[in-house]
Amino acid sequence: MIKKTLLLICLFCILYTYGQLSETLQKYYDYTNKAEYAIVISNDKKAASEYYQNAFKLKKQPFFDDIYNSFIVNTEIHNNERAKKDYKNLRCLGYNFSTIRGFKFFKDFMENNQDFINGIDCTQEQSKFNYILKKTLDSLGKSDQYLGRLTVPFSTKRPDEALIKKLNKNDSLNAVKLKEVIEKYGFPNEYMVGVNNQVDAFTPDYQLIIIHQQKKGKEINVDLVPLLYKAVLEGKLRNRNFVDLTEHATLKKDYNLPLIGLDSEYYINKSIYPESRDKKDKKEIDRIEENRKKIGLPDVSKTTLYRLFKVNFNPLYRFEPTSFIQYFTESCGEQILNNITNNAVKLTFEDYLKYLNDKNNNRK
Q1: Sequence-separated (6 or more) residues with CB below 8 Å from residue 30
Q2: What is the dihedral angle through the alpha carbons of 146, 149, 150, 156, rounded to the nearest 10 degrees?
Q3: What is the DSSP letter of 252?
Q4: In this structure, is the dihedral angle defined by the CA atoms of residues 119, 120, 126 and 127, taken in order, positive or negative?
Q5: Among 80, 96, 228, 263, which residue carries the largest CB count within 10 Å?
Q6: CA distance 253 to 247
């Protein structure tokens, strides 16, 4: 009996440990969350710089997004030493700076630090890249995108059944291969294969395999979520990128309350406001908040504010993937537009910030 009890306790400890972030990783996210909050709420970039520095002391391999945001902050407050360190880290991850090359702050940094920049040697860092693995991932991504592009001409009507069958088979084969890769090497992040510079979103084509699997819902063939969640707990995959990959194309949201873009305005489900929630809404939001807390994400209110800040004021910063905004136009049809009107409310950054400030003041 005692042995069985001890065994159950051990199993519980293993499951509990597996299901939560380490204390160090949680502190890392606490600092980066505070840095983003300082930028969005008060434009206090000096405070943000300090928060990022504290975060980087805790993690040997900080996430690309955080180094990138830190670089922008440090160049704008003219903290040149920190900016140079960030620049080197980004460059040695393979980032080509194409998305910010045209901005004045970047041109000034480059002009003022030519000797430093010319002397950077990334041989040691990039020698750790697994180029064979990168080639495998690129090949998987091309395979996924090739058949996907074949369906584009049929976007206004249902594709040929034979093509659908071929596409589903290809998706499954690619997902199986990707799962094998992750099981063998771990999640292939920027420190393993470098940064993807193909698109502004920095989403490698191979990651679309995950999104395509998630889109299948209950008909999913290969479940990659447990491996991705494990990568989050290990600090190899950033928490919000995990949510982006797993909920990019799904209707059911476990971590996310997405913005809705309609022409040039933004909406969100009415349940964003506690006073508008019924029992079902409250239960759903509480579930989402609990899930977010487990992986170090800020609460839904702050995240919504960050998204509004990004789309309205400063698209430079990498706070939230753009996939968290579901875009519609008036051409989508009356039914969709009515659904948005009946279940969502229009939001602006200024109005929602005022609402949160008033709410906090009333609590005091």
Answers
A1: 296
A2: 160
A3: S
A4: positive
A5: 228
A6: 6
Cα distance between residue 235 and residue 229, in whole Å: 10
Instruction: Tell me if the pTM is above 0.85.
Output: yes
Give me 213's structure tokens.
Answer: 């699997």
Edge to edge, the sheet with strand 259-262 lists 325-328, 259-262, 265-269, 344-347
Burial class from Cβ neighbours inside 10 Å (0-12, 13-18, 19+) for residue 264 reads: exposed
Joined tokens for residue 301? 């209110």
